[in-house]
Amino acid sequence: MKKGRNVTIQVVADKAGVSKSTVSRVISDSPDISDKTKEKVFAIMDELNYYPSAIARSLANRMSKNIGLVLPADEDFFINPFFQLSLRAISKTASSRGYDALIVYNEDNEIAPIKRVANANKVDGVILMRSQVKDETVDYLKKKKIPFVLIGKSLDYKDIYSVDTDNIVASIDVTNRLVDQGCKKIAFIGGDKDAVVTIDRYEGYKKVIRENGLLESENLVEENECSVINGSKAMEAILKENKDLDGVVITDALMCAGAIDYIYSSGFIENLRRLKKEGKDKKFIIATFGSLKNRGECNSGAVELLDVDVNCKAIGEASCNKLIDILEGKDAELMDLVEYDIKKSYI
């Protein structure tokens, strides 16, 4: 049913079996209304395509001064340094500009939590912390004209406000460094294959592999939801099939932590140290987009670590400032690209 003159608060109230005043209080998020009633009314509003965010704002005659942070539902999300640092930067930036941050937990990419906070006028705009292919949340926010900024980039739309690192270029850069240091067989461990950041980093890796005529094989690539355990399983699977592996590109700090855990626990590090003592120095380099500090029980110095620092703090600050600028009617660039840096250490 299309929104039109016949779709009023009274129509919503009649269909939901509640009073008009109850619908009004649902819209203004009154604490006197139960969650069950709110869910029922919001469901009817959605069915009728009736989203009176403008009415809700006029009732309050002010903005909420809240911005919503939509977080993915990854099991290990809160130990991921990218999200820790960017969340801290967003919260600090919002506070400095007179706003508060409201966390919206996006379980299994469901859009119900977004609908709930948007329809209740709890937030003025939204920051999406991850970009997915064919993201229903993006579709919904665009359809309802709710201001939002995407951390990452959209493969489906070209007109979305976003903040990102050039992940293809960064992946090309760091993979080339492995090649320049003599790596001949390089694997790839990525996160969720539907995450745009994984797609971009894999594209950069693949480009370098092909340009240098190196082996391109399915048993050199592992992709799964970002977690420490999945990183460990990925490293195990790759090394099982590739005893002569000398390099790996890893797209996420959690996956990298798991990979490092495995090469310590499996005796792989000890074998590298033994070969070095025997004068048979074997090269092994890990290139990663973020790492967890102090992984492993010791620093053997046997494995070189190239860490792509995407500057999480700057990404968080830029995304928050961009959203607030939009909310306050100021000019904002469609896309901000944050510079990255590559740091070398040993594990």
Structure description:
The N and C termini lie far apart (61 Å). Helix 5 links the parallel strand 1 (66-72) and strand 2. This protein has 13 helices and twelve strands. With 347 residues, the chain is an alpha/beta fold. Strands 2-1-3-4-5-11 form a six-stranded parallel sheet, sandwiched between helices. A six-stranded mixed sheet has the order 7-6-8-9-10-12, with helices on both faces. Helix 1 packs across helix 2 (20-27), helix 1 (9-16) crosses helix 3 and helix 5 (81-96) runs parallel beside helix 13.
Keyphrases for this structure?
single chain; 347 residues; alpha/beta; six-stranded parallel β-sheet; 13 helices; disordered N terminus
**Helix fraction?**
40-55%
Instruction: Give me the Rg, rounded.
Output: 24 Å
Can you tell me the overall shape?
elongated
| Through-space gap between termini | 61 Å
The count of β-strands is: 12
Report the total helices. Answer: 13
What number is the mean pLDDT?
Answer: 88
Order of helices and strands: HHHHEHEHEHEEHEHEHEHHEEHEE
Share of residues in strands: 15-25%
Uncertain segments: 1-5, 54-61
SS-based class:
alpha/beta
SSE map:
Blueprint: H1 9-16, H2 20-27, H3 35-47, H4 53-60, E1 66-72, H5 81-96, E2 100-106, H6 112-119, E3 125-128, H7 136-143, E4 148-151, E5 162-164, H8 167-180, E6 186-190, H9 196-211, E7 221-223, H10 228-241, E8 247-250, H11 253-265, H12 268-277, E9 285-288, E10 304-309, H13 312-327, E11 335-337, E12 341-346
Parallel strand pairs: 1-2, 1-3, 3-4, 4-5, 5-11, 6-7, 6-8, 8-9, 9-10
Antiparallel strand pairs: 10-12
